[in-house]
């Protein structure tokens, strides 16, 4: 796995006005703006559900989890990820809301810097590192962790 | 090589034996049913004629004996004596054993068994399995005309099928006109035997009888009924046939059609159209000549498909349905008549496609019933109990995997009911109960689940006795407070058996825990309820990951909800000022019903309109009103799970993708009402 060439490729996107990137392998598809069906009584970070390839999948607003500022928006895309859930040892398909998708770029492992409070506002535990593209810092997200954690916290939230 | 065909052969024989078993169970109630007697005779006859070549000599002898007995009954127009049915059923079991363990020495079971049988034969027919094949006499002398195309594969002889016999039997049909063809020398016929045959004949034999000639080569033959009448009565038809026979070419139906025209089957008037060798066609033929296709017989023609492939198919179908909906709205937008027509066609096709794809995965619970009936029949006889078996909702469909895995646990539950539940006749008389005990099997849909209930009117479980047993076995401390429900749940614990006497059938303390494990594996639940001297009811709740639930589609602002239709009583339009506050009660024709305001409950943000529609749903013994904005219509919902992200929510059992791509949420009404009731009490 480590030697697979696309291991070094990242999808960069805008999490509603904040530059982010995710490993290309975990991305299944980028969907156009579409109607998201709200599920009553859901926590804030869950936008609702959409139908994807015949299944119902949740759509997550990453800003809530990542503590990003909430600004209104008109257009959006949904980046569909496959994430590995450790608790149930299965793969979950989850949609993540983003403003738009920028590019797929190759980043050599050497060019990835450790995340710190100087180069990203995202909590370090949710990142795989940071890289510089055209003079701008882009944070690489650990999607497995974010989506698994968001899912776990949902269940913990419910306890209260 | 033979081994591989042997497996297929065994499967086929198993299916035949199942058919025979169900015919026997029917004969038990109607001992003079000619069809049933014939069926037993035919199954025994065909097995006898074929099992020899796979080395099952004992089976050959045994089937011969049984066939003789039924031959005598049939020829004398007698009815089947009651005790013969038991003996024959026993014979079916022995045949199964013989087929499964051919190595073992079965003479211990065989000898006494054949003796029992010989009581039914007047004189001992010589044990000669080479008697010419007997065919059942047709109930009437009316002849029909058939066209048979037999194209054997090249490996036919190595499979142990005797080609010579087949052709000889075919040619022994009186008046038959056969066409023997050889394939041209070409690569593409390499998989075929180098010759093939066509035959046209009229006979009073039934379709099945003709098919039996080609037993174990049924995939290589097409049997087409040309006409319900005897076309050979027309000399012109015979003349035309003979002319064609001399030409040595394939039968040309063009000049023959005018003779066949009077038949009702429109397919037969276009013989070229029927030349496809599909089981579908064969089955249609069977229906035309009025034979009952056994549910089991249809299963003969099934193929095994990887469940993943079916899932993939389902997903593709769902995508297609959504894409289709997009196209429909486009067609509407541009108002192109051609596009309209086309999209309408695609709409119809994709609906059919969807229904088909869904139906592939689902099979009715009915398919398990034969095993249960047999179990109840045999066990009640053995224990000297009288038991009626009542079934309800056996057309309820479940995913095949679930059916496959639920049969054995259910057999165990039924076995418990027979053994421990239903009392002996004497005991029942003491209790002033009817002699016949009742075991009732019920299946029904509820929300995203299928419920299966097994209920008996027997002794029930005594909580006192359970308690005593639990303390003895150390499951409970003396004086430890427990509810009756908790006591019943102990039954599912490993090593807990309540049978006062251990019988060979049940009561060894293994069983209910395994039953529970199996059901949990299917993500189902099991529960028992009981009343002393009234009986026990076991309820199994199973998920239906892929079942269709007929639902009422309603809206609440932008949210679309599905309410299972079976629970809906009626709908009433009204205004909120008619609902009394603070306790929301609606007075429906003098009948006060409590109202659940779904908008408040689900806290959707939009404004409450003045008007509302109350959906009256049945809950327990009474009714409740669910207030929604609008009723949109009925919807056949394919329920999809919401997935682990939504495991926290309590009101929805799943969601369904509508034709236009919108998602509707399926309300778990029972749970929802229960939760509301509970909160009221707090």
Ordered list of secondary-structure elements with their pairings:
The complex is a heterodimer of chains A (160) and B (682).
Chain A: E1 9-14, E2 19-23, E3 27-31, E4 46-52, E5 55-60, H1 62-66, E6 77-85, E7 90-98, E8 100-106, E9 127-133, E10 136-141, H2 143-159
Parallel strand pairs in A: 2-10, 5-7
Antiparallel strand pairs in A: 1-2, 1-8, 3-6, 4-5, 6-7, 9-10
Chain B: H1 2-29, H2 34-51, H3 57-75, H4 82-100, H5 107-118, E1 144-150, H6 163-171, E2 177-182, E3 195-203, H7 207-213, E4 221-227, H8 235-247, H9 257-260, H10 279-288, H11 295-300, H12 307-334, H13 337-361, E5 362-364, H14 366-383, E6 387-392, E7 397-399, H15 400-421, H16 425-430, E8 437-446, E9 449-456, H17 463-472, H18 484-489, H19 512-521, E10 525-531, E11 535-543, E12 548-556, E13 559-564, E14 568-575, E15 585-588, E16 591-597, H20 598-602, E17 611-619, E18 622-628, E19 630-638, E20 652-657, E21 663-667, H21 669-681
Parallel strand pairs in B: 6-8, 13-21, 16-18
Antiparallel strand pairs in B: 1-3, 1-4, 2-3, 5-7, 8-9, 9-11, 10-11, 12-13, 12-19, 14-17, 15-16, 17-18, 20-21
Helix pairs in contact in B: 1-2, 1-4, 2-3, 3-4, 3-5, 4-5, 12-13, 14-15, 15-19
Describe it for me?
The complex is a heterodimer of chains A (about 160) and B (about 675). Residues about 155-160 of chain A have low confidence and may be disordered. Chain A has helices at about 60-65, 145-160; strands at about 10-15, 20-25, 25-30, 45-50, 55-60, 75-85, 90-100, 100-105, 125-135, 135-140. In chain A, about 40% of the residues are buried. Chain A has a single domain (about 5-160), classed as Beta Barrel (OB fold (Dihydrolipoamide Acetyltransferase, E2P)). Chain A is built from two helices and ten strands; from the N terminus they run E-E-E-E-E-H-E-E-E-E-E-H. With about 160 residues, chain A is mostly beta strands. With about 675 residues, chain B is α+β, with helices and mostly antiparallel strands. Chain B folds into five domains: about 1-120, Up-down Bundle (Four Helix Bundle (Hemerythrin (Met), subunit A)), CATH 1.20.120; about 145-290, no CATH class; about 305-365, Helix Hairpins (Orthogonal Bundle); about 365-545, Heat Shock Protein 90, CATH 3.30.565; about 550-680, CheA-289, Domain 4 (OB fold (Dihydrolipoamide Acetyltransferase, E2P), Beta Barrel), CATH 2.40.50. Chain B is about 40% helix and about 20% strand. Chain B is built from 21 helices and 21 strands. In chain B, the strands form five sheets. Chain B has a five-stranded mixed β-sheet. Chain B has a five-stranded mixed β-sheet with strand order 19-12-13-21-20, with no helix packed on it. In chain B, helix 3 (about 55-75) runs parallel beside helix 5 (about 105-120). The longest helix of chain B has 28 residues, at about 1-30. In chain B, about 30% of the residues are buried. The chains are: A mainly beta (about 160), B alpha+beta (about 675). The interface of A and B includes residues 42, 46, 94 and 151 of A.
